[in-house]
Amino acid sequence: MTDMTDPGSFTLYRKQTAPGLGTCVIGGAIAAGLGLGAFAVLVMALWISSPYPDSGPGGALHVAAALWLLAHGTELVRTETLSGVPAPVGVTPLLLLALPAWLVHRAARDAADPDERALGARTAWAGVVGGYLLVATAAAVYAAGGELRPSWPSAAAHVPLLAVAAAGFGVWTAHGRPPGPLPDSVRRAAAALPVPAAVRRLFVPERLLGAARAAVAGTAVLVGGGALLVGVSVVLHGGPVRESFLTLTTVWSGRFAVLLLALALVPNAAVWGAAYGLGPGFVLGTGTVVAPLDAAAAPMLPPFPLLAAVPEAGPGSPLTWAVGVVPGVAGCVLGWFAARAATAGESAWSAGRTAAGAGTAAVLCGGACAALAGLAGGPLGAEALAEFGPVWWLTGLAAVAWTGVAGVPVALGVRWWRLRVRARARAAVEAERVRVEGLGQAPQDVEAEGKRGRGRGIGRWAAGLWRGRGRKAAEGEAAAGLVPGGTAGVVAARTEPVPEAGATPTTGAAPTADPLPAADVVPPADVVPPTDLAPPTAPSPTQPHRPPPDPSPHPHPPPHPHLRPPPHPRPRPSSPTTSSPTRAATPSRDEPPADVDRRSGIRVRSWCNFGAQHGSRASVVQGKTPIIRWEM
């Protein structure tokens, strides 16, 4: 029997019971039910908290179903009016549009997940859309019996459009958003269109994708700038905005509902602000246009916070003309993204193709702005309030003009600058390659040489400091070859012969022992010499101590003021196996040891002796070259 707690068996069980089309239909229906239920809960909460409910729970549920359809873009019709004439309500709060779109997207993405489902993309998409439309149809039939009734032509157009688009995006997301070619049917239809070859070349996937990204960036800047304009206007009209909010209703539940409605309409206000910055402005009733150049007197509007922030009627002023900065910045951003796409590959686009790409991005940006303007506006009543919001086609044309005029020159300029920087970088790399080939070095050798060169000045300064003659003398010795290498912290030493013990030094005599360096060297302590060196022999008590003569022609300089003579070394204990009196003898405290210079008071030890006594701290630089360590 298979253990179902095993992850492998659970995966096998899940694949064996993989859902089909029916499960996708149920998923779409659940997505629609969740959205409808969220609206129902909100409306019921407001109905319960209202001190003067106009109807019972059935009326509240009818309103919830109508608002859910309004969130899809469906136009509602209010039948009970003072004049008896039905009044349409077609302004869709764009923030409410996000909830059903997200739910359909999630349902389609989960249904088309290739890791959990064995269905095709089309099957999952069709199942989710079908289940969602079944619930939407039932909700429309139910809402038709309330005060807010959906317009059937509008519902038949907007609800399926949102479901199809959101489900398609969800299926595309489930498959990793592949940037592959369009379906065969779409490509055949596009090939059948009578489009010139020059225009057809603009729709190459790579160029079209770059233009789409630039258009999205420009549209985002336009909408963001519109939101900024709305915020500034609300601050400037703070008094009327506050008064309208307080006088619209006096109960807390009503004020809470007004606040929620104002927040849901904030994206609409941002689109209205973008249309105002582009120039066409927006309409507050039939024949009433509010634009930066001129604003007509608006009719009697209901007291609403966002409507109280509308600019006053009258001719334009420098303050209202300054809103043209928003589309100008949007055009510059669009041009920068177009130039970035033009220079992204190894071979950059030509100037003509770059200009064409920026123009295509401007057209796409205009189309997006026109669509947003159409969604953000609509009728709020009959007669004078039949038109409300920006005019979609004027907004789209203004967006194309602004972003095209500002974006194409910016795209060409940024392209030229990026290509110039790239050419200079390539020229620098080529010059460096030629220099390296002339020196006969590899690129890594050049890099190491550059790292070593940063410490050469320190090495010359250190040599001059220890010799007491300053930096200029040290640089002169380094140039003359007395101080080869020139690396930081390491100075090559002059080697002098060391006379044997008890022998009188003779000028010009050949050395009889290994040369012992007599320079002042401070080697780095990162290399440990071999530890099998013989320990030094102490001077015999019967033989007088004679310090080695100074073979250098010049006297030793006085000790550096920052250097102090070290204390006398402690005697090395005698070996337990040796009882020779020579090992037990120690130099007198009144007389400095043999390795301490009488004039400078600085201890000088060869690397062999020092390594024998302190093997873990000794250093060897440049292979086996003997060096001297100055101990401070």
From TrEMBL:
Residues 532-556 have a biased composition (Pro residues). Keywords: Membrane, Transmembrane, Transmembrane helix. The keyword DNA repair does not apply. The chain crosses the membrane at residues 21-48, 60-77, 84-104, 124-143, 155-174, 215-236, 256-275, 321-342, 354-376, 391-414. It holds the Pfam family DUF6350. Residues 499-600 are annotated as: Disordered. Residues 557-571 have a biased composition (Basic residues). Residues 499-531, 575-587 have a biased composition (Low complexity). Residues 588-600 have a biased composition (Basic and acidic residues). It comes from the Bacteria. This is Integral membrane protein. It comes from Streptomyces alboflavus. The lineage of its organism: Bacteria, Bacillati, Actinomycetota, Actinomycetes, Kitasatosporales.
